[in-house]
Design a protein that fits this description.
The structure is a homodimer. The first copy, chain A, is α/β, with parallel strands linked by helices. Helices cover 42% and strands 14% of the residues of chain A.
């Protein structure tokens, strides 16, 4: 049943991360042809922003070492945004050479994660992103800035809101068009989400430049999303079938499943353009390729129906 | 991090259903001693309302055929409410004979589920409950009225709000002290939840007599709970470890896991009196007894931590 709730947006743009954030966490690399079919099926299900791959050095993420082979396979997807993650200028060069028009950089709100994930301080990582963002913008590309560990950090514990706001503003000052606020270890709850969004607003960050990226490690992703929607956020990251997650969280469950999100948005009468049946079939197919069931509750429930 | 959100209650009473609603869905009956230990551990973790068992005919629910043996084992739990489900006057007699002071009846908002589950029309089931509620009240017992299929029904589809309100009012008119609104197949979304709560309010049902009972079949239970809390609801049903569910929903996941609920409420600074660590240890222990992992994301995540 389609019943709107007061104070929520009429339309949400889903930023689909399964093909990149999901598959980069697989133990064994998925064949390029399977990735290409996955992304084509996601587009056919109505997703219009599909993060395709990462131009990081193959030594660090061997699962996505086929970015050069995969990206050209997606050239026929008219009207679908295909952002790619780039860690540095070398990655940007590779992405731009293949015609990428949307790129993303991956920052951290905490020093410990910056050190462990980027081998740099937060300030050093921002300095590394500066020419990446500038050159991407010069080339006409749209730039997304991921900000991880926005709520909690496995080493530092709760992350102060003002610290997140400071790095968020720095990313926007570099020229990022959009931010994605990541709850990388899945510990956030709705009050914390609203507090961060409120402080970002006070600091002059427009809500339409903010996306939210929640993890379902403790089952909180959808209620946090609901809180963010109530604040006016209209860009939500999700992963088809719930693929991926954070290896540091030591749990089977990671990203918010796109299907669980679409179930809620459909029920609320919020437009996404996504066909849930086609999407669920895609995730069920991908789960077969990976040889294990999807952690998405909606995928499981709909797949068990006759 | 403990960050309140505006418009939510300061305290929530969790109505723990795992020992009854959870264990009645197990293929093989759990030994009485294990049930008793489970309930004692739930009480030690701070739960103050623990639905203990059901006095239904053993032919229908053989998993709870030991109600007469189990209930006296719980006599030492001072200050803990131990409601029991009774289907009819015979069940009430058995419960009252053992000193039960809180009983629950189990109604349906739809004709099809009433027919399949109770072998009666909705009107006939209300007529059956009438002397049960009256005699329980005469004996000083507190009576909860479960209302299942409040949002969707597997045979009838979406359930009209006015139909639910009509049966809800009838249960209160019989003398029920409290209602539990069940999303038995887990299809509800927050707008639908608010619409039903709003109509109940319009019909004169006080919010403090309403509990909500959401299922996580499609991952929606916690966001629906958040919506209900925003409406002022302060009684939430949940099942330790996410035990149980509805056999008609054909999915591995059913009841909202108490741990996932407590994680959210703790984060929001909403008091429950529950110790999440002790509760998670209890559910991990119960999962071992049952020989399969808990479907609760919080239990899984916390159990994977060193």
């Amino acid at each position: 049943m389609n019943v709107p709730a007061p104070g929520l947006p009429a339309r949400v743009r889903i930023h689909e991360v399964g093909a990149r954030d999901g598959l980069q966490n697989e133990k064994t690399a998925v064949p390029t042809a399977v990735k290409a079919e996955f992304i084509h099926r996601l587009a056919a299900a109505g997703l219009t922003t599909i993060e395709a791959t990462s131009f990081v050095h193959p030594k660090w993420v061997p699962q996505l070492a086929d970015a050069e082979q995969l990206f050209p396979e997606l050239g026929d997807l008219a009207g679908v945004h295909l952002p790619v993650l780039v860690p540095n200028e070398r990655g940007l060069d590779r992405a731009l050479a293949l015609g990428a028009t949307r790129i993303a950089v991956f920052g951290s709100a905490t020093e410990t994660f910056a050190s462990r994930n980027l081998n740099r301080t937060v300030a050093e990582s921002l300095a590394m992103f500066e020419p990446v963002v500038a050159r991407a913008k010069e080339g006409g590309a749209h730039v997304r800035g991921y900000l991880s560990m926005c709520f909690g950090d496995p080493w530092e514990g709760p992350v102060p809101v003002h610290q997140v706001v400071r790095v968020a503003k720095a990313l926007l000052d570099l020229g990022c068009d959009e931010l994605s606020l990541g709850d990388t270890i899945g510990v956030a709850t709705p009050g914390h989400v609203l507090a961060l969004l409120g402080e970002l607003g006070e600091a002059g960050v427009p809500t339409d430049r903010i996306g939210v990226h929640f993890h379902d490690t403790y089952g909180q992703a959808l209620s946090n999303t609901l809180a963010a929607l109530g604040h006016g956020v209209t860009t939500v990251d999700a992963s088809a079938g719930g693929l991926g997650g954070c290896p540091y969280a030591k749990s089977a469950t990671g990203n918010l499943a796109t299907e669980d999100l679409v179930w809620m948005l459909d029920g609320l009468g919020i437009e996404t353009g996504v066909d849930l049946t086609a999407l669920t079939a895609t995730s069920a197919w991908m789960a077969e390729q990976l040889g294990r069931p999807s952690p998405s509750r909606t995928v499981r429930a709909l797949s068990h129906k006759e």
